TrEMBL record:
Domain Costars as annotated: residue spans: 1-79
Family recorded in the similarity comment: Belongs to the costars family.
Name by which UniProt lists this protein: Costars family protein ABRACL
Pfam family, one: Costars
PANTHER family: COSTARS FAMILY PROTEIN ABRACL
Name of the gene this protein is made from: abracl
GO biological process annotation, one example: regulation of actin filament-based process
Gene3D superfamilies linked: Costar domain (1.10.10.1540)
The organism of origin for this protein: Sphaeramia orbicularis
Source taxon at top rank: Eukaryota
Length: 81
């Protein structure tokens, strides 16, 4: 799969699983995204897709790398709907 396609799929999954925050942006906790069965089937390397999307300024999250368990409560914010 190409990165652009995976980033588009990621946006769809964040919209499906997320909620609007106080700023009107869609956000989802990393743990929710990571533990979702549909996401597990779509993304072979979710963390890599997240990093690519952050680099393209499609999403935002604190830190450079998200790890299961440690970062489950980190918000992933969708910057481009």
């Amino acid at each position: 799969m190409d990165v652009g396609h995976e980033v588009n799929l990621l946006v769809q999954e964040i919209q499906r699983l997320g909620n609007k925050n106080a700023d009107g942006q869609t956000s989802v906790k990393f743990g929710v995204l990571f533990n979702d069965d549909r996401c597990a089937n779509i993304f072979e390397a979710l963390v890599g897709t997240l990093r690519a999307a952050k680099k393209k300024k499609v999403i935002s999250f604190n830190g450079e790398l998200l790890l299961q368990g440690v970062h489950d409560n980190v918000d992933i914010i969708l910057l481009q709907e």
